[in-house]
Every structure is written in C-alpha cells, then in structure tokens.
Write a structure and sequence with these properties.
The protein has 15 helices and five strands. It is mostly helical. The longest helix is centred in the N-terminal third of the chain and has 40 residues, at 73-112.
Length: 375
C-alpha cells in the first residue's frame, strides 16, 4: 500500500493505493475497514480431546524415557563424580590434620588411662592400665578445681577485653581519614605478627620491679610512689599483667576482622534508623550488631579457645617455673607431666581441657545453626 495524490475531483488529497494484478487502484472503504476473519474450526467430537491429550502425554513420556535411557554414560559418570569432588579436594587437608593431630590425640587418650612415669619412659617397666584412676584423683583434688576456676576467669576477662577493645578500634577505623587508618592497620598487623616470646620480653621490661617503665611513669603522678613495686608478688596482679599481654596480641586480629565486617553494614539501614530518631547507641544496637553477630560469635569462640590454651605467656613471664597462684590448666598439666614425671596424670588433665574446649565448640556450632535458621 502506497500513498499517492488523488485526482483533482477529490480535492488532490493523499489517497491509499493498492497494487492488484500489476495495476494500482485507489483503495475503497471496504478495503480499509473490513478485516478478514479466519474461518472458525468445527467443534471436536466428545472424547476426542481426552484421547489426543493422553496420546500426546504418552508421547512426551516416551520421549523423556528415551532421553534418560539415551543419556551418555559419560554424563552419568560425571554426575556421580561431582559428589566425590569436594572430598577429593579436602583429602590433603584431612590427611595433614590426621597426621598432625590424630596420633598425639590418640597417644594422649592412651596415656590418660595408664600408669606412665620415668620407669615406663626409659623402658624399665611396661605401662600399667589404671582405668579411670587418674580422672578420679584429679576430679577429687581441690587444687585442680582452683586451677579450673582461675583459667575460666582468666579466659573470660581476656576475651571480654579483647572483644570490647577490638570493637572500639574497628569503629574508630570507620571514622578516621585514609592515611590514619593505614597507619593504624600497619601498627595492628605489626603487633599481631610479633612473636610471643618477643612480646613477653617487652612486657617483662615494662613491668620490671627495678627498671620497669610503667613504675617510673606512675611515679611521676602526684602522690604516687611505684618505685620498686613488684607486679608479680601476688597472683591477681601478675595474672592481670599476663592478661594484658594476651589481649595486646589478640586485639589486632579482632579489630581487623570486625573492621572488614563493618563495611558490610548497609548505610541505608543506618540512615533509616537515624531518621526514625535512633541515636548512635540505637543504631549500633539494632542495626550494626545484628549484621555483625555471626562474626562476633566466631571471634568470641576462637578467643575463648586461644585464651584457655595460653601457655608461653605464663611460662616465660614466670621464668619457666609458674607459682601455684599463676597456674592455668595448660601449665598445670605441663608441671604434672614433666616436673613431677606423672605423664598419665598430666595427660588426664590435658584431656579434661580438651573436653572443656569441645564444649565451647558445641556452643559455637549451636549459635551458628540458630543464626542460619533465622536467616
């Protein structure tokens, strides 16, 4: 169809022309308004639709069955091998863990049920099975329970300080300029990467009785005389110093991890909370904490495990001979095994420590499952 200028009798208006049999003629009103309607199909006889549907369905099922039967064996093997691929990738790591932890743990369990001392160590006598005698003796010993309570209090205080200081440091890193944040991160990584023995030697110098920097600084305050003060004269003060050493080494990891987690907090939620009238504490409590909860649970669990297993800080700070008021479960087990030469009793104490730590891991897994159900 084309538009051409019509005859003068029609006013010279543009009229539609239609080509037919090689000739162009003006389109009539019937050509422009009448639409061709396709003929209606006759109604199908009753039952014909059901039969056709069943036939088509049967054909589709047959085709599907043929597809399943005709699937190449290579694809079936590939589908079966996909389930074994994760285990194949995990196999090297599991093998290393089995070699590094499997034998020591098995030996620990074996020794805890045997009488094993110097004669057995040098081969003069054979180990004697004693059943649960070691566990009965240590569980009935008041000194053991005092060590357990001291260890729990020490770990609880260290974990609390670590998480609070780590959170405050992470929040601070979100509010400083770029170059300040870079300097703080460098300092955190440097302190985190410092060997434990070096850090312990520095703290021994800081809290030294005669040449300690802390005593000199405190003595500069009006009315304070700390010259010659012995921070390790009593258990509470000495453990507080060791706790500060542990916290100093643990805060960088917590601060860097929480700082990375804070970048995932949606700014839209914080702005909406402020528009609703929430202050800084309200935004932190109802917006930031729920987002960081999985990370906080993970960091708290790891900190509890690490702080209950503290050994070199106490051992080096007390020159290899921790006094009774400085004993934690790790040093107490070491003394029983290598100082008293009661390897069976020391193994039993270490096994009880492992059971306590497994309880902490069980609580962690339960919390993570709850978080997963909520999400």
């Amino acid at each position: 169809m084309t538009l051409r200028q019509g005859p003068v009798t029609d006013g010279g208006a543009l009229l539609p022309y239609q080509e037919k049999n090689g000739w162009e003629r003006p389109m009539s009103a019937a050509d422009t308004t009448t639409a061709k309607v396709p003929p209606t199909r006759p109604p199908a006889p009753p039952g014909a639709g059901e039969g056709a549907g069943q036939g088509a369905g049967g054909g589709a099922e047959g085709t599907g069955g043929a597809g399943e039967a005709g699937r190449p064996a290579r694809q079936r093997r590939r589908a079966g091998g996909g389930a074994a691929l994760p285990w194949a990738l995990l196999a090297p790591c599991l093998l290393v863990l089995l070699l590094v932890l499997g034998y020591p743990l098995t030996r620990l369990v074996t020794l805890s049920f045997q009488k094993f001392g110097q004669p057995q160590l040098w081969g003069f006598q054979q180990p004697e099975p004693v059943g649960f005698a070691h566990f009965g003796r240590i569980l009935g010993d008041g000194e053991f329970w005092a060590v357990v309570v001291r260890t729990v209090l020490f770990a609880g205080g260290a974990v609390t300080l670590t998480m609070v200081l780590g959170m405050l440091t992470a929040l601070l890193l979100q509010r400083v300029s770029g170059w300040v944040k870079a300097l703080v991160n460098i300092a955190l990584v440097a302190s985190w990467g410092m060997p434990v023995i070096v850090a312990t030697a520095i703290f021994k110098w800081l809290f030294d009785t005669d040449y300690g920097v802390l005593n000199w600084l405190l003595s500069r305050l009006p009315g304070v005389d700390m010259i010659g003060h012995n921070w390790f004269a009593g258990g509470p003060q000495g453990l507080a110093v060791i706790m500060l050493l542990v916290v100093w080494g643990a805060v960088p990891f917590v601060a860097i991890t929480l700082s990375a987690g804070l970048t995932q907090v949606p700014r839209e939620l914080e702005e909406a909370a402020r528009l609703d009238g929430a202050g800084s504490w309200g935004v932190f409590r109802y917006v930031t904490l729920p987002v960081l909860k999985p990370i906080i649970v993970m960091l708290t669990t790891l900190s509890v495990i690490w702080d209950m297993g503290v050994f070199p800080q106490v051992f080096v700070m007390r020159n290899g001979h921790p006094e009774a008021e400085f004993q934690l479960l790790t040093t107490y087990s070491y003394d029983k095994a290598f100082v008293v030469n009661d390897y069976g009793g020391g193994s039993a104490i270490a096994l009880v420590t492992v059971v306590l730590l497994l309880g902490v891991v069980a609580v962690y897994m339960r919390q993570m499952l709850k978080i997963g159900e909520v999400e």
